[in-house]
Each structure stands twice: as structure tokens, then as C-alpha cells.
Amino acid sequence: MAKRIFGTARWIVALGVAVAVCAVAAGVAWAQQRGGATKPLSTQDILDIQQLGARYAYGLDTGADNGYYYANVFTPDGSFGTTVGREKLAELAREGGGRLKLRGYQHIVTNVIVEPTPEGAVGSQYIQVLTVGGNGKSPMIDHGGRYEDVYVKTAQGWRIKSRTYVRTFPPN
């Protein structure tokens, strides 16, 4: 009789341990899937992110709102290349990103690609920078390439966390 009770007790303990291990493993798997899962972007998210590209170009080309129209497409600690932070970005736009020197830059953004990430989104887009011309000068493509971006959704909507310019024209 003692053998039978001991055997049953051992079986119950083994079963309890197996159930506990399975429960922990299932909980860990569920937490990883839930926490690390990348949610798809909504159509509105994609449109809002594309709008950042248009606002970026307009703000840089015009220096609107004393440069803050441009700076507002970034997070407060956002960056474009080595220019970091709202005040430095606004200063860049006030200077026109070269517009004042060369009189008439226009940034043309095309082929926007946006992919979701667990933190927000990443994307790329082609950029061509035109000089408008004037005084008998024809418009021309001054330089071009693509932007590589990291986007985050803030209380104010989508913003650029970081933007890197990859030059493709003219070739180095």
C-alpha cells in the first residue's frame, strides 16, 4: 500500500511540475508575440507619414514660421544628418538649406516607402533638389538621392526621429 501511495504522489508532483513548466513556457511565448509584434500601419498612418515629406520640403524651401514649420516635422530631439534638435533644425530651415545662397531650391519627394516596426516605422523616399532658375537660367537638378527615415508616433502625430541623406547624384 505504501508503494502505491508513494507512486501516486510522485505522479501527481511530476504532473504538477509539467503543468507549471508548460504554463510558464506558454506565458513567455505569448508575451514575446504580444510585445515584439509589429502592428501593421493603417492607411491614415501611411498618409500622415507621407505628409511629413511634403511638409519637410515646404518648410525647408520656404523657411516658413521662422524655420519651425520644418522643425515641427521632427521629434524635439530629432535629427537630420548631424543637425540635432528642434532649434538647430529651425535654424537650418531659416538659412533655407542653401536656398538663400543659391536662390531657388525646391525639394521634390517621390517614391515613398514606409514599413512598420515595433517602435513605429521606417521608410525611404527619393529626393531631387531643383534650382528654379531665373534671369535667363534654366531650372536644373542640383543634387539628389534618397532619405532613410525613422518615424515615431507622438502625441502630436507622426514625426521624424532621424533622417539620413544618401547622395546618388551627382556621383561622388
> What Rg, in angstroms, do the CA atoms define?
27 Å
Considering DSSP H and I runs of 4 or more, what fraction of the residues is helical?
40-55%
Biggest β-sheet description: 6 strands, mixed
Shape: elongated
CATH top level assignment:
Alpha Beta
Strand content is 35-45%
- Along the chain, the helix and strand elements come as HHHEEHHEEEE
The total count of helices amounts to 5
Quick recap:
The protein is 42% helix and 36% strand. The chain has 172 residues and is of the alpha+beta class.
Sum up the structure in keywords.
172 residues, Nuclear Transport Factor 2, Chain: A
What can you tell me about this protein's structure?
This protein is α+β, with helices and mostly antiparallel strands. The protein has one domain (43-169): Nuclear Transport Factor 2, Chain: A (Roll). It contains 5 helices and 6 strands, in the order αααββααββββ. It has helices spanning 2-36, 43-62, 68-71, 86-94, 99-102; strands spanning 74-80, 83-84, 105-117, 120-131, 140-154, 157-169.
Summarize the topology:
Blueprint: H1 2-36, H2 43-62, H3 68-71, E1 74-80, E2 83-84, H4 86-94, H5 99-102, E3 105-117, E4 120-131, E5 140-154, E6 157-169
Parallel strand pairs: 1-6
Antiparallel strand pairs: 1-2, 3-4, 4-5, 5-6
